[in-house]
């Protein structure tokens, strides 16, 4: 997810945008039951209808049909406003189609109905971060962490917020804590590397990116960031095989520019110029 771009000094490449984690699993929240009371059996009927609508909407969501999912999930929430699973999934569907304000409404209501669930605050923070509302996003990540200090996604995204605010030391601290909370999560290590790079520490950033790639190989974004860290350290011979692999997976202007910078660093001016020409040809594609 593109959040920001910052030029690395001394090269033609740009720093790859850091990524806000958006692969959000559905929270382990139980349905809160139906509203209303009485002995007529009507609430149970409404609950059954809401459950059926939720199941249909969730199936549509899982299949990738966000339009159908939103229709059924909206109906499920209307039938049972206290069904947490339906509200959460509806918020997810809104977010996926860029309806961030609508997503926030659902996540806020989710937090009101279940104030001790860290997931709702995390997801609320994500939507606010996507809208550029950085401090409110940070506050919700912090609420999530107060409820569950192991919520590594909130920890990591809090670091990315601080990075966007120019608070590099805080960003490094938060993203490092994310790797400690989730040492087997590639995204945590990759974003820790971005924070380290921003702090002018390419050697440690290199190690973080390598750890990320050990956990999840062939990730072009992480590989490009690794290439730029190696480039900053003038490890040109190590840049070339990494970026050569990147262009096989996902060719891009950025990859070709880094390729050219590494060749130029080795004194191979003609070969570097060829890569720069390929970079220009890819611009806008």
TrEMBL record:
<feature type="repeat" description="TPR">
    <location>
        <begin position="118"/>
        <end position="151"/>
    </location>
</feature>
<dbReference type="InterPro" id="IPR051685">
    <property type="entry name" value="Ycf3/AcsC/BcsC/TPR_MFPF"/>
</dbReference>
<keyword id="KW-0802">TPR repeat</keyword>
<dbReference type="Pfam" id="PF13414">
    <property type="entry name" value="TPR_11"/>
</dbReference>
<keyword id="KW-0677">Repeat</keyword>
<dbReference type="InterPro" id="IPR011990">
    <property type="entry name" value="TPR-like_helical_dom_sf"/>
</dbReference>
<protein>
    <submittedName>
        <fullName>Tetratricopeptide repeat protein</fullName>
    </submittedName>
</protein>
<feature type="repeat" description="TPR">
    <location>
        <begin position="84"/>
        <end position="117"/>
    </location>
</feature>
<dbReference type="Pfam" id="PF13432">
    <property type="entry name" value="TPR_16"/>
</dbReference>
<dbReference type="InterPro" id="IPR019734">
    <property type="entry name" value="TPR_rpt"/>
</dbReference>
């Amino acid at each position: 997810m593109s959040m920001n771009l910052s030029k690395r000094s001394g090269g033609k490449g740009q720093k790859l945008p850091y990524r806000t984690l958006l692969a959000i699993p559905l929270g382990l929240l139980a349905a809160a039951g139906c509203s209303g009371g009485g002995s007529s059996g009507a609430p149970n009927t409404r609950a059954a209808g809401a459950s059926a609508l939720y199941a249909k909407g969730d199936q549509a969501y899982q299949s990738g049909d966000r339009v159908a999912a939103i229709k059924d999930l909206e109906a499920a929430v209307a039938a049972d406003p206290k069904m947490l699973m339906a509200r959460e999934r509806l918020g997810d569907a809104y977010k996926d189609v860029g309806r961030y304000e609508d997503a926030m409404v659902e996540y806020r209501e989710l937090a009101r109905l279940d104030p001790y669930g860290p997931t709702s605050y995390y997801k609320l923070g994500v939507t606010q971060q996507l809208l550029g509302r950085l401090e409110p996003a940070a506050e919700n990540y912090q609420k999530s962490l107060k409820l569950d200090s192991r919520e590594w996604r909130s920890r990591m995204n809090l670091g990315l917020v601080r990075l966007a605010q120019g608070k590099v030391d805080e960003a490094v601290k938060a993203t490092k804590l994310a790797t400690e909370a989730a040492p087997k999560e590639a995204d945590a290590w990759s974003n820790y590397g971005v924070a380290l790079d921003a702090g002018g520490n390419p050697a440690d950033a290199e190690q973080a990116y390598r750890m990320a790639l050990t956990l999840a190989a062939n990730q072009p974004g992480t590989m490009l960031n690794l290439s730029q860290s190696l480039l900053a350290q003038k490890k040109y011979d190590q840049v070339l095989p990494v970026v050569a692999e990147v262009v096989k997976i996902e060719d891009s202007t950025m990859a070709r520019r880094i390729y050219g910078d590494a060749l130029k660093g080795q004194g191979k001016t003609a070969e570097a110029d060829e890569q720069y020409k390929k970079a220009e040809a890819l611009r806008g594609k």
